[in-house]
Design brief:
By secondary structure, this protein is an alpha+beta fold. The chain has helices at 43-55, 96-120, 138-154, 163-170, 189-197, 268-272, 316-333, 377-392, 398-404, 417-427; strands spanning 3-5, 8-10, 30-39, 61-64, 80-82, 131-135, 159-162, 177-181, 184-186, 204-207, 212-216, 221-225, 228-237, 254-263, 280-284, 291-294, 300-308, 342-352, 359-364, 367-371. Helix 1 packs parallel to helix 8 and helix 2 (96-120) packs across helix 8 (377-392).
Length: 437
């Protein structure tokens, strides 16, 4: 059953279940006076803390997380670090500058992650061969044509694949058309976050299970925690869809709860019934389609539900019902593996804005915020974290300019209209999904 500590929903499910158990750091206690506090130890907060430490090697930096490391969205996604985003609909020449801006941010985030994974020797199943963007039904096939045009117009490397070619590579004949985009990385997200969090610079101290209850704005800012208090000159908020709990970007971001399942590890015979690739990731060209991976440790991972659930994780009872949807989608794709059981199921929350923009910038004179990645947080969140540290330290860069150029978010009405509107907005993702689910 999902537990909540100060309304920070968490449980023991997810990618972390596949790793050796890790001991959490102690929660913060007592009174502290520091130059910098970073709230949120997902990829954005970890990236920001590392960058701050580089600029300010003599300053003490406190990094807080309300949960255990890797139990937020950064450790509960499907493990895709995107370089080239898919923009729905036909190519719009007037939006070309924006398309390129977003992909520059993605690519810089990916470059930062690659460097850290290599420098720190993080074992996170890093596989840099991009993804397969696939289509099985009418609506996704229209997006296939749109995506091809986007890639051609922007000059990004890609390979078009028909049904037979996809079947040969992936071992399923469900998909009628697809595009392989070689820029992009598959990884084990919880392993990535654990590796980054356990190898922080010497002047960064991580406190897990330490939710901030209140930020008293001022110069300095004062943060109230359950068993302590922090007085800080500057604060970076990297809590994504939970920023409204701290009083920021209220009515501009909401959380969509997703769910997926892992199979047990496949045997040699079971793997031989598949295609020629031993590891791959599929992203449906329909926004509500399934995300499917054959992982480096020979498991299938499949995620295919998204719903408005109050921005919290699913209970075990609800998750077991969603598992039936995962099961049907898995067997539809791989009937030869219908006997292979699921070993784990999990849920996670993504932060989405009404107009699918991102949040970046200064909230008050000494409080800075980034978030709202709309499902592309691994690479983009990493870039936003580094850029936010640059911005807070008055360091100019193309990356800062790109992040600042994010379109303003549109307003989301309060409850109960929020609940009704969010429910239908998320539900709209599945219209016409058909075989792609």
């Amino acid at each position: 059953m999902a537990l909540a500590t100060h309304n920070f929903s968490t449980d023991n499910h997810g990618w972390a279940e596949l790793l050796t158990k890790r001991e959490a750091t102690s929660p913060l206690s007592g009174d502290h006076r520091v130059p910098w506090v970073v709230i949120g130890a997902g990829v954005t907060g970890l990236s920001a803390a590392k960058r701050l430490a580089q600029y300010n090697p003599n300053d003490q930096i406190i990094l807080l997380d309300a949960r255990k490391l890797g139990q937020g969205a950064s450790g509960r996604n499907s493990g895709y670090a995107v370089a080239i985003s898919q923009f729905s609909g036909a190519f719009d020449k007037n939006q070309e500058t924006n398309y390129r801006r977003v992909n520059r941010i993605n690519t810089q985030g990916l470059d930062l992650l690659r460097q850290q994974v290599n420098d720190l020797g993080i074992d996170c199943q890093w596989q840099e061969d991009g993804f397969y963007h696939t289509a099985a039904d009418e609506k996704s096939l229209k997006e296939y044509d749109n995506f091809k045009d986007h890639l051609n117009q922007l000059g990004y490397e890609h390979t078009l694949l028909n049904q037979d070619e996809l079947t040969e590579r992936l071992g399923t004949n469900l998909y009628k058309s697809g595009v392989h985009v070689p820029k992009g990385v598959l990884l084990q997200p919880a392993a990535l976050v654990h590796g980054l969090g356990d190898n922080l610079p010497h002047n960064v101290t991580l406190y897990e299970n330490s939710p901030v209850l209140k930020i008293n704005q001022g110069e300095p800012a004062v943060l109230d925690l359950e068993n302590g208090k922090i007085t800080a000159d500057k604060v970076i908020i990297a809590t994504n869809y939970e920023a409204p709990k701290l009083g920021f970007i209220k009515r501009y971001i909401m959380g969509s709860t997703l769910s997926g399942s892992f199979t047990r590890q496949l045997t040699t015979d079971e793997l031989s019934s598949l295609g020629t690739l031993k590891e791959w990731g599929v992203l449906s060209l329909h926004s509500g389609g399934a995300t499917v991976r054959l992982t480096q440790d020979n498991r299938f991972s499949l995620r295919n539900t998204a719903e408005y659930h109050g921005a919290v994780l699913m209970s075990d009872t609800l998750l077991s019902k969603r598992r039936e949807i995962h099961r049907a989608a898995f067997e539809k794709r791989f009937p030869q593996l219908a006997h292979v059981p699921f070993e784990f199921s999990w849920s996670g929350v993504e932060g989405i804005s009404q107009n699918f923009t991102n949040f970046f910038g200064q909230q008050t004179s000494n409080i800075y915020l980034a978030g709202g990645y709309n499902g592309s947080g691994v690479s983009r969140g990493t870039a936003f974290g580094a850029a936010l540290a640059d911005y807070a330290c008055n360091v100019s860069s193309q990356l800062v300019d790109d992040c600042l150029a994010s379109a303003p978010a549109t307003w989301i009405p309060p409850r109960p209209f929020l609940d009704i509107g969010a429910f239908f907005k998320v539900k709209m993702r599945f219209i016409g999904v058909g075989l792609d689910r």
